[in-house]
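Polyketide cyclase / dehydrase and lipid transport: structure, please.
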Amino acid sequence: MTDDVALRYTRTYPLEVAEAFERLLELDLTALFDRRYAAIPRIAAVRDQEGPWRSPGQTRTIVLADGGTMREELTAVESPTRFTYRISGITGPMKHLIASLDGAWTFEPAGTGVRIGWTWTVRPAGRLGRVAMPVFGRMWRGNARQAFDNIERHLVR
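Here you go.
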């Protein structure tokens, strides 16, 4: 039995699939995650990224507003249908809940637009992380809703 927890959120937008893929892949994380949601802080900065975020194997450091950091590695880019990443090296308050996670953004045709999906497969950090996952999952969904509102603001014109 695995302790991994899968979280997913989707929304449909009036955009072409390829356009949505390209623009979201390049969107600044501080614009996408610009507000705290419950215990999930906003992203304050991104450091150590070299060049455009496009090549599997690239890494960067995500700095959270509460002082925590996370190492993100881009693991796959399958234009225009999906890109995936791994978050590890978590510091700050989140390290007590999450050991690491695999994330994916997916893009599929939906009528005349695109359905964008965001998934996290979370590996909880120990007993505390496992116990807290149901509450964390609810917070994550609220954070995802805010991010998808920002996708609409930044990508749909």
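Notes: DSSP finds three helices and seven strands in the chain.
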